[in-house]
Amino acid sequence: MAKVLAVVALIGVLLGAPLLAAIAIAGAAVPAVAVSTRGACGTAPASGQWRPPFVQAYTVSSRGIGWSYHPVFKRWNFHAGQDLSTLPGPGPIVAANTGRVIRAGWDTTGYGNLVDLQHSGGIQTRYAHLATIDPHIVPGATVHAGQRLGVEGSTGASTGNHLHFEVSIRGTRVDPISFMKEHHAPLDGRAVEAPRGEPDTDMIARPAAPPGEGGAGPLPRPGQPRRNSLHNSALPIPADIHALYVAAGNKYGIPWALLAGVGMEETAHGRITGASSAGAQGIMQFMPATWARWGTDGDGDSKADITNPADSIYSAANYLVHSGATDGATGIRRALFAYNHADWYVNDALYYATEYTPGTRAPAPSPPDCGSPPSSAHQEPAQK
């Protein structure tokens, strides 16, 4: 092995850093060996212009920048960044500094879902293997330090949830560990507070909705416990379903994202079909007895069909409003609890709602226990 490493090092000298950077490919391994988790259960304030790309505790993998054996491609290659993993499970990924989005989407070379940001001074950062990219993160958009980009995942050539984080200066990749330390944002595993000026109350301020984007008003901040949202990321909303959420939100005066949160929690916007084991039906999962009272004609065909997406979404809005969803944060929580009598359900729906709300950042779950990740076992929602 020593001879192999020596040869690799010699090749590196002969080829030079720029060419090595040109053949760099995304890392894939799950962080198996933590280099540093010191203070992982503590919290550090954000300082200066730079900050770690997480808001919760994380581990720093032994797989950093340099040559290493790729567990997916089964060959030695140049690993162009640093692998990091959130604790106790996959969490939000945030911008390490203010910048402009120059790329956001799927990469075919192994990075999976990635976001590239351009910062001042010729500096770029890359965030790869994301489970999802937030809808408002698009090329040309400006983001601030700490703004949410997406959710940690395992897309592309990856064997488990982690973030592949890269830093380059004028096209040359540099060691993220050294760079972040030099810029007063050490990657030491500690959770980092929200950027100054962001809300620290029980409310997430919702900006004025664009025309046709549903009701106004703030959403309550999701809390604990959570269940499904710890393991299932918010999925893209089909265009026809999104239009129904918006239209129903407009009619009943509630944020369309609240309906989207319920739709994601119940059936992933219709991806889960058929009746539940408890007998709930339709995209928003109504029990027949509840439907008999609250079922609404959403598409104007003069009948309320429990399996019709338009009718189901409009009926959900109707039910939420009658349960208090227009009575502020407390009313929204009360309405969600009435929809499915479980605290974890309320927090799951609110978490997903913040995922779909433009300009907001869903909080990471607080990590007082840095032990084993929570179980991913599915539990049938309570009867409505």
The shape is: elongated
Distance between the termini: 62 Å
The CATH architecture of the largest domain:
Distorted Sandwich
**Proportion in β-strands:** 15-25%
Largest sheet: 9 strands, antiparallel
Question: What's the CATH H-level superfamily name of the largest domain?
Answer: Glucose Permease (Domain IIA)
The helicity comes to: 25-40%
Number of domains: 2
List how many beta strands DSSP finds: 18
Radius of gyration: 23 Å
Low-confidence stretches: 1-48, 196-216, 359-384
* Count of DSSP-assigned helices: 9
Mean pLDDT: 76
Q: What is CATH's topology name of the largest domain?
A: Glucose Permease (Domain IIA)
Element string (H = helix, E = strand): HHEEEEEEEEEEEEEEEHEEEHHHHHH
Q: Please report the first level of CATH classification, the CATH class of the largest domain.
A: Mainly Beta
Structural class: alpha+beta
GO molecular function: metalloendopeptidase activity
Pfam families: Peptidase_M23, SLT_2
InterPro entries: Cell_wall_metabolism_enzyme, Dup_hybrid_motif, Lysozyme-like_dom_sf, M23ase_b-sheet_dom, SLT_2
Organism: Intrasporangium chromatireducens Q5-1
What features would you describe in this structure?
With 384 residues, this protein is α+β, with helices and mostly antiparallel strands. It folds into two domains: 16-192, Distorted Sandwich (Glucose Permease (Domain IIA)), CATH 2.70.70.10; 203-355, Orthogonal Bundle (Lysozyme). It contains nine helices and 18 strands. Strands 1, 3, 6, 8, 9, 10, 12, 14 and 15 form a nine-stranded antiparallel β-sheet that branches. Strands 7-13-11 form a three-stranded antiparallel β-sheet, with no helix packed on it. A two-stranded parallel sheet has the order 2-16. It is elongated, with a radius of gyration of 23 Å. The protein starts with a helix and ends in a 29-residue tail after the last helix. 45% of the residues are buried. Mean pLDDT is 76; it is low at 1-48, 196-216 and 359-384.
